[in-house]
């Protein structure tokens, strides 16, 4: 990280730390450098670093663990806020996904490019390969990446950025509804070929229906598990 200028020190340090997280320099779950180390790297006082860390912890980006250090909790403030609001409430996460993904699929069918269709199909093939091998973590990552690519294909910048902020909880929701765990089995037989085909055919209504259909099925499973 570059040495910060003297003006607006706290705000500048906040931006430096945020960039380190969002650009992957510090991945989720990693402990960030100590206050003295950051102060030395950035050329500011420890109090300035402490204020910046406190601000990012308040937004949910970082988590301060007394006596242990400060850890990366999310890749964006939006995602951090949703983690605090939703926690493990899988049903709520799926409900929000349905709101965003149904319209995202509709927009994608109307605005996608040929290159984006090819990317969707490639992601789907990789997702399915990981599914067949039982590689649940990679499957969940690629499934979430596929859904993000669908939303991105709609070329609505605001919707894309809102969805990007949900990356962690969406990946977690995929894992929770597909991984086989003791006492609860969410079998990952829900495919997305129909969704990809509807987008390729530029059939907006069918794309929205496909997106709504599988999310409704996942919600039904979760609600049944809760009852």
Summarize the structure.
With 227 residues, the chain is mostly helical. The protein has helices at 9-22, 35-42, 46-59, 77-86, 90-111, 114-133, 136-152, 157-164, 167-176, 193-200, 204-226; strands at 62-65, 69-72, 180-181, 184-185. Helix 5 (90-111) packs across helix 7, helix 5 packs parallel to helix 10 (193-200) and helix 7 packs across helix 9 (167-176).
Written description of the protein model:
Helix 5 packs parallel to helix 10, helix 6 (114-133) packs antiparallel against helix 10 (193-200) and helix 10 packs antiparallel against helix 11 (204-226). Residues 180-188 have low confidence and may be disordered. The protein has helices at residues 9-22, 35-42, 46-59, 77-86, 90-111, 114-133, 136-152, 157-164, 167-176, 193-200, 204-226; strands at residues 62-65, 69-72, 180-181, 184-185. The protein is mainly alpha-helical and 227 residues long. The termini are far apart. GO terms for molecular function: DNA binding.
């Amino acid at each position: 990280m570059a040495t910060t200028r003297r003006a607006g020190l706290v705000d500048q340090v906040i931006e430096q730390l945020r960039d380190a997280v969002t650009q992957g320099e510090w991945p989720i779950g990693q402990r960030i450098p100590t206050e003295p180390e950051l102060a030395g790297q950035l050329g500011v006082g420890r109090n300035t670093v402490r204020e910046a860390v406190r601000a990012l912890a308040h937004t949910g980006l970082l988590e301060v663990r007394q006596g242990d250090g400060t850890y990366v909790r999310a890749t964006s403030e939006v995602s951090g806020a949703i983690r605090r609001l939703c926690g493990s409430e899988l049903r709520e996460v799926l409900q929000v996904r349905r709101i965003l993904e149904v319209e995202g699929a509709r927009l994608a069918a109307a605005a996608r490019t040929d290159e984006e269709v090819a990317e969707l199909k490639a992601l789907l093939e990789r997702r399915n390969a990981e599914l067949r091998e039982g590689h649940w973590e990679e499957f969940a990552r690629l499934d979430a990446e596929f859904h993000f690519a669908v939303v991105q294909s709609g070329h609505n910048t605001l919707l894309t950025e809102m969805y990007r902020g949900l990356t962690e909880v969406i990946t977690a929701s995929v894992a929770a509804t597909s991984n086989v765990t003791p006492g609860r089995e969410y079998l990952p037989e829900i495919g997305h070929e129909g969704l990809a085909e509807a987008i390729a055919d530029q059939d907006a209504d069918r794309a929205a229906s496909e997106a709504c259909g599988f999310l409704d099925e996942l919600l039904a499973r979760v609600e049944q598990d809760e009852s």
